[in-house]
Amino acid sequence: MLRLLKVFFRGVIAENPVFVIVLGMCPTLAVTTSVEKAIGMGLATTFVLVCSNFIISLVKSLVPNEVRIPIFIVVIATFVTLVKLIMSAYFPVLKEALGIFLPLIVVNCIILGRAEAFASKNDPFASIFDGLGMGIGFTLSLMLLGTIREALGGGSFLDIPFADGLSAYTQTIFILPPGGFLTLGLLMGLFNHIGLRRKRKNRGGRNK
């Protein structure tokens, strides 16, 4: 169980897909203009990650090496289609808001990367925890970006406007592409700084 928890938290913190590994930048910048879209994309990606990791881990010994990647993509595309159908039935407004970025989950580097680097080499339970960790890490990253950009650029949170006095200080640039790059860069710098401090502290503790 301890091993599975390490696998899970590695995706959330140490190997965070957005701020550390820097994957999935296209949807990260596109959907984080609001918290609602950020949560929707994060949960959809998490679902696809967990399910595809699990199935790929189950069938890995049956898949010829020569067609490994095409089969992985077919598995991922199946779960993306399922997500689209569910959203069309129950969350049509969110589906329309996510637009083309919902079907593009198929080619998200995070999902194919975990299928190739982890699920195809590990057992199903570990693959589920890896998918959960990476998915939740991705979702929390999108939520953080979405919260900052929506609050500073739109004067709201989850589309609930702030009081008039606070909304007067909003800067539209934060919901535009330059503001997305600026916010992402600052947060990546902060995460890398924290990571470097942790490594130095660990090295210092071992040298004592």
Could you characterize the architecture of this molecule?
The protein has 208 residues and is mostly helical. The protein has one domain. It has nine helices and two strands. It has a two-stranded antiparallel ribbon. Helix 3 (35-59) packs across helix 4 and helix 4 packs across helix 6. The radius of gyration is 19 Å and the shape is globular.
Q: Characteristics of this structure?
A:
2 strands; mainly alpha; globular; two-stranded antiparallel ribbon; 9 helices; 208 residues
Shape: globular
Strand content: under 5%
How helix-rich are the residues, as a percent range? Answer: over 70%
- List low-pLDDT spans: none
Radius of gyration: 19 Å
- What spatial order of strands do you see in the largest sheet? 1-2
- Helix/strand class: mainly alpha
Supply the number of structural domains.
Answer: 1
The biggest beta sheet, please?
2 strands, antiparallel
Instruction: Count the beta strands.
Output: 2
Average pLDDT confidence is: 89
User: What count of helical segments does DSSP give?
Assistant: 9
Report the order of strands and helices: HHHHHHHEEHH
Amino-to-carboxy terminus distance: 30 Å
Summarize the structure.
With 208 residues, the protein is mainly alpha-helical.
Itemize the secondary structure elements and their pairings:
Blueprint (H helix, E strand, L loop, with lengths): L1 H13 L10 H7 L3 H25 L8 H23 L1 H7 L10 H9 L6 H31 L1 E2 L2 E2 L2 H4 L9 H31 L1
Antiparallel strand pairs: 1-2
Helix pairs in contact: 1-7, 3-4, 3-5, 3-6, 3-7, 4-5, 4-6
